[in-house]
Amino acid sequence: MEKPRAVLFDAYGTLFDVYSVGLLAQQLFPGQGARLATVWRDKQIEYTRLVTTSDQGAPHQPHYRPFWELTQAALTYAIKLIEPAARSDWAAYEAKATQLMNQYRHLSAFPENREVLQALKSRGIVTGILSNGEPQMLGIAVRSAGLEGLLDHVISVDGVRKYKTHPDAYAQGEKVTGLTRQQIVFVSSNAWDALGATWFGYRTLWVNRQNQPFEELGTPPTRTATNLREVLAFFD
Amino acid sequence: MEKPRAVLFDAYGTLFDVYSVGLLAQQLFPGQGARLATVWRDKQIEYTRLVTTSDQGAPHQPHYRPFWELTQAALTYAIKLIEPAARSDWAAYEAKATQLMNQYRHLSAFPENREVLQALKSRGIVTGILSNGEPQMLGIAVRSAGLEGLLDHVISVDGVRKYKTHPDAYAQGEKVTGLTRQQIVFVSSNAWDALGATWFGYRTLWVNRQNQPFEELGTPPTRTATNLREVLAFFD
After folding, report:
1. Does the beta-carbon distance from A168 to B46 stay under 8 Å?
2. What b/e string do you get for B42-81 counting C-beta neighbours within 10 Å, with b at 16 or more?
3. Per-residue b or e along B7-32, where b marks 16 or more CB atoms closer than 10 Å to that residue's CB
4. How many helices (H) and strands (E) in chain A?
5. Mean pLDDT per 10-residue section of chain A, whose length is 236 residues
6. Domain boundaries in chain A?
7. Nearest Cα to Cα of residue B219 among B197, B191, B195
8. Which of A102, B35, B56, B79 is in the most buried spot, having the most CB atoms within 10 Å?
9. Shortest CB distance from B53 goes to which of A65, A165, A213?
10. Phi, psi of A175 (to 5 degrees)
11. Given an 8 Å threshold on Cβ–Cβ distance, is B213 in contact with A81?
């Protein structure tokens, strides 16, 4: 099999630690920080799927909203779920929500990111992000993590207004790099994302950071690892 | 506004209590029954969305699998998540999974179901189910709950191989009843389902059985209640 020529990384959960908001969440909602971070993240993903599933067949994706807005909506939901008082008095919680959203703009990057991206660049491999995030949000996250010089492409699904795992979202990777899906390795820490990308036809690495089972839908990722370094094995 | 002529109910969570498996789950997985039931249910819904989102643009819905199979896959995932030993020795857990799946076939019905369906029938309203479940699974659940005589239609998304909230799934309700979406009330305990149906154009009742916030995506259901009886208010 031909060696791949590019590696595209999912951003949220893969390069950036979406649970790094947990500490602030715990300060703002004592005893409930971990739950808030989990509900927030789950709802954020759920909203991407809800709008994309509901948009199908309808012209112009009427329910699509950029990832930043869905992230905000998901946070509002999460706060209202764990703090019922927020349902009738949202004003009292707005400042906390704003603090958490600001933190989300500058998520921690995982420690091995730079080293892996540098190793790929030194071998002449094309690198990029392929994310549900919209361009502005991704730009801030990439600069904030000091990764600008190491990424050839920062690709957002916003151009097609359809979230992963819609095939049109994954197809943005082919379109922007000018490569075929067989020439691209897609890396994600999200099992559902690794699955969707595998279905699409990318070679995939699932970075199982939290020792979870893979999705039980019959299609394994090409490779599985516990951190990003394993992506280099595609080029040995 | 014209009075509606039909009421279509979601099945799982709305007429049938998906958490009624919790007691058996607690016996089989002591101390973890509630968590297992929650992960199982969340994953089941997640899988419906994953396959439908990934199928879009691809001919013939290649990733679609009937709801019973997705329910089984979700249970396998849930057991492997909470019992890591099951990942390497699934055989030791297979009998427990089978017991839980058998229980799922005969979920408890909510107590007000019969009374509300009878009241609708006595007013000449068309009644039905519009569910992600496939026909066989729905047939068993309906008979098991003694609701056969009270439902004019048992409609499954299986005919279009697309899960809610895909508009084609909701459109099955119009197609089978021969009514327009404006003439139909759709009832669901699942906030996402009430939202999808509202976007589609049904009049909707969200039965908020668990005192949760509604989805924060800008579109409220037509009505909200804590049990099914409120559906009669559409006909007052």
Report:
1. no
2. ebbbbbbbbbbbbbbeeeebebbbbbbebbbbbbbbbbbb
3. bbbbbbbbbbbbbbbbebbbebbeeb
4. 9, 6
5. 94 92 95 96 97 89 96 98 97 98 93 96 98 96 93 97 97 98 98 98 97 97 97 95
6. 6-16+108-235, 19-105
7. B195
8. B79
9. A165
10. -60, -45
11. yes
The H or E element that residue A37 is part of is helix A33-55
For domain B6-16+108-235, the CATH superfamily is HAD superfamily/HAD-like (3.40.50.1000)
Judge whether B36 and B213 are in contact, CB under 8 Å.
no
Task: Return the structure tokens found at A162.
Answer: 């359809």
Q: Domain spanning B18-105 has what CATH number?
A: 1.10.150.240
- How far apart CA B132 and CA B69 sit, in angstroms, is 12
**CATH H-level, domain A19-105: superfamily:** Putative phosphatase; domain 2 (1.10.150.240)
Instruction: List B residues 6-35 in contact with A (Cβ-Cβ < 8 A).
Output: none
Binding-face residues of B in 94-133 toward A, CB within 8 A: none
Q: What's the gap in Å between the CA of A213 and the closest CA on chain B?
A: 6
> Rounded CA gap, A223 and B18, in Å?
35
Q: How does pLDDT run across A57-100, given as a tens digit for each residue?
A: 778 899 999 999 999 999 999 999 999 999 999 999 999 999 99
Q: Is the minimum CB–CB distance between B81 and chain A shorter than 8 Å?
A: yes
Choose the mutation target among B65, B165, B186 for the interface with A, i.e. most A CBs under 10 Å.
B165
Distance CA A162, CA A69 (A): 14
B53 and A58 within 8 Å at the Cβ level: the answer is: no
Question: Model confidence over B76-93: pLDDT tens digits?
Answer: 999 999 999 999 999 999
